Each structure stands twice: as C-alpha cells, then as structure tokens.
Amino acid sequence: SSLTPLLAIETSCDDTACAILDSHGTLLGESVLSQEDHAALGGVVPEIAARAHLKALPSLVDLTLERAGLALSDIALFAATTGPGLIGGLIVGSSYAKGLAMARGKPFMGINHIEAHILTPRLPASLRPEETAPNFPYLALLVSGGHCQCILVEGVGQYRRLGGTIDDSAGEAFDKVAKMLGLGWPGGPALEALAKEGNPRAYTLPRPLKGRPGCDFSFSGLKTAVSRHLEPFGREALPRHIAADLAASFQQAVADVMTDRVKQALAMVPPVTALVVAGGVAANQTLRQRLENIAQEHHIAFLAPPLRFCTDNAAMIGWAALERLYQGEQPGDIALAPRPRWP
Ligand code: KG4
Ligand code: ZN
C-alpha cells in the first residue's frame, strides 16, 4: 500500500530496536541493541535507559535502513511505541519517529506495546517457520520483566484484560529471586539453568492466589518465602545444592501458579482457538511445557513466538501498525503524547 514500507521504533524499556516491514509484514531490516549498563546496577534505571536510547537511535535507524537496502526517503510511514512503558524512553523513541515523519512529510502511528506483544503469533509465516497463526479469539499470556497479564484477544483492537499481577511481574519475581541466590541480572535464564540441578519438591513454597477465581497474579509472597529459607545462611556463601533446590522449588511454584491462573482464565471466556504466550519469561522451558499441557487438555493450539519476537523488538511494533492498517485504520495524530500507562 502507499503506507509501506514502514519503519518502526521500540524504546519502552531497555532495548533500542528498529525494524522495517513491507506491506505483507516481511521483515526487510532489523536491529536491536540491548542496553548492558543496567546489569551492574541490578535493574533498569529509567534515566540511564532514556539517554542510551537517544544515543543509540540515529545509528540504529541508519543501520536498519542499510540492512533493508533502503533510503529514508523510501519509508512511507513511521511508527513507534507510545506506551505503556518507561516515559523517558517512550518520549525519545516516539519523538525520533515523529521527527523523521515530519522531516519527510510522512505520517506517524503510535503503537501500544502490549497490543504488539499479543499480536506477535500472527506475524507473517516468513517470521514463524514452524507455526500457524491463531484465529480469533485466542487467549494471550504476556509474561515479561514489565508485564504479567492475561488477555482475551477477540480481534485486532478488541481485547479483554482478564487479570494481571497485583504486585511484581513474573520476570521481576525471577530476577529478584535470582539476585537473592547470587545470580546475575537479568536472572531468569540463570535461575532456570540452576534449577535443572535442583529438586523442585525440596522446599515448600506458597502458591499465591492458586484456586481463587479470576486471573490475577501475585508473586511477592513467594519471593518473601524464598528469602526466609535463606535467612539461616546469613552472610555465608550459599551452598550450590541449596541454591539449586530453592531455584527449582521456586520455578515449580511459579509454574503451578501460572497453570492455575491460565486454567481459571480459560474458564472465564468463550471457547478460544489457541493459548499464546509472549514476553521474555516465555523462554522458560518448564513454563512452556506446562502451558502446552493445558492447551492439549483443552484441545486448543499452543503458540509461542520465536524467542527473538517474544522479547522486546521492533518487528512486533511494525506488525501491530500493519494489523491496524489492514483494518482500515488511518495513521494517527502526530501530536499524540506517549503515556507510561495505557489501560
Ligand atoms: O520481554 P523481556 O525481554 O523484557 C521486558 O519486558 O522486561 O523480558 C525480560 C524478563 C526478565 O525478567 C528475565 O529474567 C525474564 O524475562 N526471563 C526469564 C527467562 N528468560 C528471560 N525468566 C525465566 N526463565 C527464563 N528462561
Ligand atoms: Zn515488552
């Protein structure tokens, strides 16, 4: 169409990402820069993230154009994440995209980050080799460092939030427990690796909200329970087998909670065609397996986008823009302000 190729920018957390898509959603060029300054600080520092996005964007956009074999003048539409997320990064990314759009006299489209995540399983076949795209309605579980929620996806732009976390996100819980166990940041992958050596039944940990109706999540009680088991060790080094048992027990508890919550969610909605999981925590094999089992029990498809599209990326932002264009929606108001929260 006259609105492609489009260039999309994602800066809502600590990944600076740019992607260029054609009218079918084929990825013509892509680049991602994961900020590393935060690891030493044990978490994402918003102000540092915003400055890093600003520093990275110009060359990242140039590199993406180069990879696509295109010039800026070829781009017909500029899209960027305008929320939810860290406001500094959102301002940087969306202002940069708006600036390019104004300079070239082209339209701008602001994209909701959550919407982009939950539409990823619908990415074109070229980007998800092994899987078929789900039909509506489907149930999406978004589990990342910033988010933990369950959404019924009835169509593009038709979402029903069934529940979400009342304290930490799933990723935060993994990261905080990993930190207690002396693993690096982000700790999810390291915790999963360590859990492979441990016994998931070694420690009795709570399953917050398990069995309750609805689809809310809570992880802070679980985190506190892990810290209580660590108290006897004080400042001594934690023996590896203890750390492994705690990691395995914690992971098991999270998996049990997620299983329960997703089952509750399925009971709340009309029949769906698929269970979809997105977000960085979807990399966890134990969780994936459990979710796959639920899908099998319900005779519905289980879809997890390839890992690079599970975590924050700009291809999903471009794809969400396309899905909206396919629906006949026109690019939005260039004055649209980014918003840290977007119900
Ligand atoms: O989607 P993502 O890359 O970015 C955010 O939205 O934050 O998710 C990152 C989160 C981190 O909290 C990280 O620890 C977690 O996903 N994570 C994992 C695993 N891989 C990444 N959590 C558990 N098991 C994993 N294998
Ligand atoms: Zn995200």
Automatic annotation (TrEMBL):
<dbReference type="Pfam" id="PF00814">
    <property type="entry name" value="TsaD"/>
</dbReference>
<feature type="binding site">
    <location>
        <position position="117"/>
    </location>
    <ligand>
        <name>Fe cation</name>
    </ligand>
</feature>
<dbReference type="InterPro" id="IPR017861">
    <property type="entry name" value="KAE1/TsaD"/>
</dbReference>
<protein>
    <recommendedName>
        <fullName>tRNA N6-adenosine threonylcarbamoyltransferase</fullName>
        <ecNumber>2.3.1.234</ecNumber>
    </recommendedName>
</protein>
<dbReference type="InterPro" id="IPR000905">
    <property type="entry name" value="Gcp-like_dom"/>
</dbReference>
<feature type="binding site">
    <location>
        <position position="312"/>
    </location>
    <ligand>
        <name>Fe cation</name>
    </ligand>
</feature>
<keyword id="KW-0408">Iron</keyword>
<keyword id="KW-0479">Metal-binding</keyword>
<keyword id="KW-0819">tRNA processing</keyword>
<dbReference type="InterPro" id="IPR022450">
    <property type="entry name" value="TsaD"/>
</dbReference>
<keyword id="KW-0963">Cytoplasm</keyword>
<feature type="binding site">
    <location>
        <begin position="142"/>
        <end position="146"/>
    </location>
    <ligand>
        <name>substrate</name>
    </ligand>
</feature>
<feature type="domain" description="Gcp-like">
    <location>
        <begin position="27"/>
        <end position="319"/>
    </location>
</feature>
<keyword id="KW-0012">Acyltransferase</keyword>
<dbReference type="GO" id="GO:0061711">
    <property type="term" value="F:tRNA N(6)-L-threonylcarbamoyladenine synthase activity"/>
</dbReference>
<feature type="binding site">
    <location>
        <position position="188"/>
    </location>
    <ligand>
        <name>substrate</name>
    </ligand>
</feature>
<feature type="binding site">
    <location>
        <position position="113"/>
    </location>
    <ligand>
        <name>Fe cation</name>
    </ligand>
</feature>
<comment type="similarity">
    <text>Belongs to the KAE1 / TsaD family.</text>
</comment>
<dbReference type="InterPro" id="IPR043129">
    <property type="entry name" value="ATPase_NBD"/>
</dbReference>
<feature type="binding site">
    <location>
        <position position="284"/>
    </location>
    <ligand>
        <name>substrate</name>
    </ligand>
</feature>
<feature type="binding site">
    <location>
        <position position="175"/>
    </location>
    <ligand>
        <name>substrate</name>
    </ligand>
</feature>
<comment type="function">
    <text>Required for the formation of a threonylcarbamoyl group on adenosine at position 37 (t(6)A37) in tRNAs that read codons beginning with adenine. Is involved in the transfer of the threonylcarbamoyl moiety of threonylcarbamoyl-AMP (TC-AMP) to the N6 group of A37, together with TsaE and TsaB. TsaD likely plays a direct catalytic role in this reaction.</text>
</comment>
<keyword id="KW-0808">Transferase</keyword>
<feature type="binding site">
    <location>
        <position position="192"/>
    </location>
    <ligand>
        <name>substrate</name>
    </ligand>
</feature>
